[in-house]
Records
---
Amino acid sequence: MSEELSQRVIKVIAATKRIPVESITIDSDFMALGIDSMDAVEILFALENEFDVNIPDEDARSVRSIRQMCEGVERLLAAKAAR
Amino acid sequence: MRRVAITGLGSICALGRDVPEFARSLAEGRSGIGPIESADVSQIRFPNGAEVKGYRHAPYFDDRRADFIDRFAQFAVIAAREAVADAAFAWTPELRESAAIVTGSCVGGQGTEDIGFRDVYKLGQNRVHPLTIPKTMANAGASHISMEFGITGPSFTISTACSSAAHAIGQAFWMVRSGATDLAITGGSEAPFSFGILKAWEAMRVVSPDTCRPFSRDRRGMILGEGAAMLVLEPLEAARARGARIHAEIVGFGMSADAGHITQPSADGAARAMRAALRDAALAPEAIGYINAHGTGTPANDPTETAAIRAVFGTHADRLAVSSTKSMHGHALGASAALECLATVLALRDGILPPTANFREPDPECDLDVIPNEARAARVECAISNSFAFGGLNAVLALRAG
């Protein structure tokens, strides 16, 4: 996964949750960051806007960590590029 | 304090255009959930809802009157007409002056507002229809009921999201019980099938892509519904004296606030509302035989509600029947609690407990007797109907067989 992509994802999360970018790493999990289900839905919304993708509910449901979130965005971007 | 009888019932929703149709659907465990037809869902992630299929304002309203009334308020008037006819009381000038109307609605006429906003934002028009405000206001249901019957007494609307109608019925119940009024028309109505509203629900990611499966392990969310249910409430003694049919009694009402999260439910808040309703009714938990659950079918609600029921009822929770009729009439937001109160009345009156439809797989986190898929013949003396709104505002009604 590209560093640039993960940094963009982290920036979106930090802006949405209004926490410092430095407090988030690729290995942070939602629980530790205090991200609850409504925060997660807001982050998905912000990611959809940032990357111009649609994140299906089914894909979103299992995501528990920043790494999974980055991987998910990466997959969706690859699918978009292939179209 | 006076005892309070339910003497009139009315409804229109996905399960039927009147109460007998509603009762038949519940008894048959027939879900009203299907492909959404009244809004364009080609750009919406979920295709299904619980609509009043093929609804037109005729024959209920003539064209000119319908111009003034949003679909949600039309449903309110239709249900109120049936409830008033069912109660079969004689209007007097004094009664029209003192009767109360208390309705619940969550989104009111936002469907009308949605059209106006599309006109100005998307189509670039410079004006919206002049009836946008009076059609959108959430109190339009109560207002049109008052005009329909010439009722000039205390009339108002409560908006507490998914608990709206329970808070409304509870207020009306307390007003009749205390002697503030001798007759109340109360319930809730909703019509949320409008593109902008559906988009907002889509964004919350709580709507199921297929159907509503409360308490089932494979549940995937709620299904939106629409419609109305209205009740006529009177003092029990007066109702008996005039020979009215007593469908059931309302015996208690309890409220609470979670004071926690704006969308995540709290078992403690739900439990406190149930306890408050039992206390108001002076009923022991063991007196309750049936619970019409809030049971939205979301991953979060159902285990939280199960935990709350276990906290309130202890070991008696294993002898209780619990079902979610949202599996059939959908989640009609501000009308939900009225439809569910009506379902509870029918369960007590007819001795048929409505099922939780679409149930497939037990969930250890929802280990209650949820009456899966088939209605059950059982005589129950007392029941409660739960409503737990977004915003953490909870309302519970307690009822007794008439």
Note: Chain A touches chain B at residues 36-38, 41, 44-45, 56-58, 60 (CB under 8 Å).
---
Amino acid sequence: MATEVKLPRLGQGMESGTIVKWLKSEGEAVKKGDALYELDTDKVTQEVEAEASGVLIKIAVPEGEVEVGRTIGFIGDKGETVAESAEADSAKPEPAPVERAANDVPHAATNGSKGSEAAAPAAAREAGGRIKASPLARRIARERGVELSQVRGTGPDGRIVAEDVERGETQPATAAAAPAAPAGEVESRPLSNVRKTIARRLTEAWTVPAFQLTVDADMTRANQLIARYRELNPDVRVTVTDLLTKLCAQALMRHRDMNVQYTEEALLVFPSANVGIAVAAPQGLVVPVIAGADRLTLAQIASARGDVVSRARDGKLRSEDLQGGTFTISNLGMYDVDQFIAVLNPPQASILAVGATRDKVVPRDGDLEVLPMMTLTLTCDHRAVDGATGADFLRTVKAYLEAPGLAL
Amino acid sequence: MSYREAVRDALSTAMRQDDDVFIMGEDIAEMGGSMGVTHGMVEEFGKERVRNTPISEMALAGAAIGAALQGMRPIAEIMYEDFMTLASEQIVNQAAKHRYMSGGQLNVPVVFRTQGGAGWSPGAQHAQQLEAWFVHIPGLKVVFASTPEDVRGLLWSSIYDDNPVVFFEHRTLYGIKGDVPAKIEPIPIGKARVHREGEDVTVIATGRMVHESLAAAVEAEKEGISVEVVDPRTLQPLDEETLVASVKKTNRAVVAHEAVTKMGFGAEVAAVLQYQAFDWLDAPIERVGARFTPIPFAPVMESFVVPHMETVLEAIYRTVTKKS
């Protein structure tokens, strides 16, 4: 039985160390007390002695940063091998990059030996400690080197099914005990320009002090209006998003303080409501703009929206389609989302997150009614808009939804 | 062509081209059989080749085996598969054994056609599905066809197989219609049929349950579950290769037959799948079949005991962990 070489704690507060190099090579004889490897801690670089005699049968971590307590090598008898899974990990043809090597360690340790500590198990365990997993899930986990104890099961009684392993592989339960995916499994996709733009703009948005306001709106009349509108204009398919676009545009014109953008020099107040609609295009999120939505009819909005959305999905938007927005609507109702918080779309000062319309029991006049309710969450740039301003605007949007005639 | 006509077409075509082929059974001549399958055949082939027998399943099965040993290709009709119990001594101990015990000197090219099944309230002694009794016997081939095309092509292959074949038909399928090739095309014994391709779960069904499963697949599709439906058609020998390949693709399996679930044919299928596709299974194999009780007379109780489309659908949902 091989002895594991674990990274020692060489002083209080030491959580990890960096292996600089091994002073013995694989297959070389080692005596207890021999200098085995060079370790760099945040304080010093020092040689670490072997704690057992034998042959260094495996170096699990050739170099790089490692947590205290992780197995970095094995000392055993000549000719002895370590457990197959640990073997497979270190037997990769090319030297692993530093980060990956560090990640490999817990995997090797937990697989290669029973006693080593693992992070809190996420999977459903039976009393006997056996993890419930389907045979297929076990096979995939075995092939990809995923620790089932780190996977949360969503099958009956918490059983781990194949999908859980596949999902778990890309979302490690804990950073420390993350099972490293074998080298071939990680796909590196170059960032598209859309992806880069999304990342840059939303990171920018995250620095903006923002607040959120939520209301529920009774959609009875709005739904009736849409149904009637479809009857009268069968050629244009009007949607909830179209109605929201129209009503928000009207509300923005009524609350001009909302139709603004913050700049270092001044607050810009816009003369018309240019409403952006968040679209999940194949290449990523895009927000084409319906300019002057306050002056368009519902049918005009529907047809403009149909045009930009279909061009967005075909990747044929022009840059002017995406410019000049003063407000954004993000509707995830069709994905069955109840409610959510949208991230600002800079430089715009507000964005409305729209959930699905659901029948809910609502107290009304001392009675209970079942009404189709929709939850709206408004995110505002607090530099440009105050809470009361946002609340006032949202109250108008709600009133318009509940009585669309008021928007006339 | 209806399922009933398809059976008759296979019998008549074989009898027209081959003098060695003849049929025998209770009331199959003037009456045309209790299910009307052999209707009109006595007029064409005469009473020598469409033979009424006394009401003794043991005697008629034995006589058919004797004729087969003498080089004929008889088809014996056992009116209800419930009555196969009476013919079992001949089928199990004689027909299944002669080739083996004679060291291959004797062939027994006989077909035992029979029918059964619930759905029309025939009661406990006329509604059973007893295929599991015969798939357990080395030396017998067992066929259970579910469509007009399959029943015709498989009966043809059974008639011309040199070994005894127990050929199950389902009472409620006689009236169903389906397209058949203009000319009879033999369907090899031991080949399953994939009725419908799917991705999420494989339903392996026999007889009436093939149709119930196809209906369940349509329902499941509305919920976004893609169901593959496979009919083994031959229960013995079983086309393990096709079944295992399907389950390796979908990772989930439901086995459905009208016979009692416990100790049934489905248990064998489940065992084959778990052994050969163990590492591909993402859910326990579901079995669908009748409850463990004699089939009741009362229609509502009969319906309660045997499986239907809904029973299959619930099993499908369990395998994919959806609502049940």
Note: Residues 84-122, 171-181 of chain A have pLDDT under 50 and may be disordered.
